[in-house]
Design brief:
single chain, 4-stranded parallel beta sheet, 13 strands, binds pyridoxal-5'-phosphate, binds zinc ion
Length: about 475
């Protein structure tokens, strides 16, 4: 079996040069040891990538070889939907790997949603990352960052979060007891489902008078000052774990590559990780073609859309024209523009992984779209009607697929996978407001966001507390 080398793996073998950190900037290219904690290049300040010397790693010859890992589910490393692909993210020695059983997720064929999107039956799939232990895809990355934090001997880990990163960090911290969690959140921009997780799991929660972008700046300063391990998606190890979402998609499609991957875009960690996953699989000869990538912004937080589709910002072989980005951010500041969308998980105007996402868009012949809160909520209602719902940000993928289908960019016969990033129960306020009969409630939560109708509302029927009336109502509506 090909995996024995790593499953038994000696830490020294893995740390001595098989994996290293490398600056994304092609003009710099500085490399750093895997054992050090860094969130940016020392020399030029750019993002870091995790790279491997694949010639020294025993990677299975075919992707289907990974199916043999299923037979060893009693081993925590093979039970995990992330670590059973350990050979494709071999930065941590087996004895440092952290898992709480993440990545046991489902790719579901969704014919009703396909109809809504305008696809042929059997062509649209939903990848339910809300099934992770903390209820969002963030666990895929957090177990990887936590493993690296453990390699560095960290005692505390911190993040700024729109909610799900903090829920995930708090969970790993309390289940494993390996590190204390410190969480920075903005005020008023976090759903109760997510906040309740951080509080109940016992994380130290710091609420800043500001929005996510403010909290992000502060957490970077504070972690540097206090030497706290930072687990935001600027952390390159998190993205290694998130690659496995794509491995599981391929696995569920019996190792066939779909035509499209459609993913919501916030800090652009997922889209970056997906691009890296396909680049490496191709490089290793494990796939022979790559899917196209569609990244979907909310209209109220559409930086990537503005830069990529409107201002033609491109990867440009590792030297994107970042003056375009600077001008754009200066203009946001001048207008005092703040991100604003019901999809709080992607309510981000300064995506930290922008450059990596440009690389992914380049490699996967990508497109970017923006969808309104109205489109997001209608798509969410359609997903939810299929039984395994999602939070608002996740439904941006389905709304985006519909838009690309309407534009004729996605053909009805192509195979499309939409990533559902978070669980339905993360944000019940938006869902209940959408389905309510109480117009005031609707206006309070959704009206201010430009949502004017609930096209697929399933409204409760109000009846007096009388048996006859109840029976009549059920006969009438049922
Ligand atoms: C974090 C998050 C996103 C955004 O993902 P990025 O990788 O930051 O683009 C989208 N949806 C949900 C539910 C999230 O928690
Ligand atoms: Zn550099």
């Amino acid at each position: 079996m090909a995996d024995t080398k790593l499953a038994k793996g000696s830490s020294s073998a893995i740390q001595s040069g098989i994996a290293f950190q490398r600056c994304l900037n092609s003009l710099c290219g500085a490399t750093f040891d895997i054992g050090q904690e860094r969130t940016a290049c020392d020399r030029c300040g750019d993002l870091l990538d995790i790279e491997y010397d694949w010639s020294r790693i025993e990677v299975p010859k075919r992707l289907s070889d990974f199916e043999q890992m299923w037979t060893r589910r009693y081993e925590p490393l093979r039970f995990s939907g992330v670590w059973r692909f350990h050979e494709l993210l071999p930065f941590a020695p087996a004895d440092k790997v952290v898992t709480v059983g993440e990545g046991q997720t489902l790719l579901q064929r969704a014919d009703e949603v396909a109809k809504f999107v305008g696809m042929d039956a059997g062509k649209l799939f939903l990848q339910y990352e809300g099934m992770n232990p903390s209820g969002s895809f963030k666990d895929n990355g957090m177990c990887a960052a936590f493993s690296h934090a453990r390699m560095t001997g960290a005692k505390r880990a911190a993040c700024a979060s729109t909610g799900n990163t903090s829920a995930s960090l708090a969970m790993y911290s309390s289940v494993t007891r390996l590190m204390k969690a410190v969480i920075f959140i903005g005020s008023g921009k976090i759903s109760y489902g997510k906040l309740s997780q951080a509080l109940e799991y016992g994380a130290l929660t710091v609420q800043i008078a500001g929005d996510f972008d403010d909290a992000m700046l502060r957490v970077r300063e504070v972690s540097k000052d206090l030497g706290i391990y930072l687990v935001n998606s600027i952390n390159p190890f998190r993205l290694e774990g998130q690659k496995t979402v794509m491995f599981r998609v391929l696995e569920a499609l019996r190792w066939e590559v779909p035509d499209w991957i459609v993913v919501p875009g916030g800090n652009l960690g997922n889209s970056s990780a997906f691009g890296k996953a396909f680049r490496e699989l191709k490089q290793l000869g494990l796939i022979d073609r790559v899917p196209r990538l569609a990244v979907i912004n909310a209209a109220g937080a559409d930086t990537l859309y503005q830069l990529y589709e409107r201002r033609n910002l491109r990867w440009n072989d590792g030297a994107p024209d970042m003056s375009i980005t600077c001008h754009y951010y200066d203009d946001l500041d001048a207008r005092k523009a703040k991100a604003d969308t019901i999809a709080s998980a992607i309510e981000i105007n300064r995506p930290v992984n922008l450059k990596k996402c440009l690389r992914a868009l380049d490699f996967c012949d990508g497109v970017v779209r923006k969808v309104t809160d109205q489109e997001i909520l209608d798509a969410k209602a359609q997903v939810g009607a299929g039984g395994i719902g999602c939070e608002p940000a996740s439904a941006a993928s389905v709304a985006g697929a519909k838009m690309l289908r309407d534009e004729g960019i996605i053909a009805p016969s192509e195979r499309v996978v939409c990533i559902l990033t978070g669980h339905q129960l993360k944000d019940p306020t938006a869902t209940v407001a959408y389905h309510t009969t109480d117009q005031d409630k609707f206006n309070e939560v959704l009206g201010s966001r430009g949502v004017s109708r609930a096209s697929f509302a399933n409204r409760a029927i109000a009846v007096p507390n009388e048996l006859d009336a109840i029976i009549r109502a059920i006969q009438l509506y049922g």
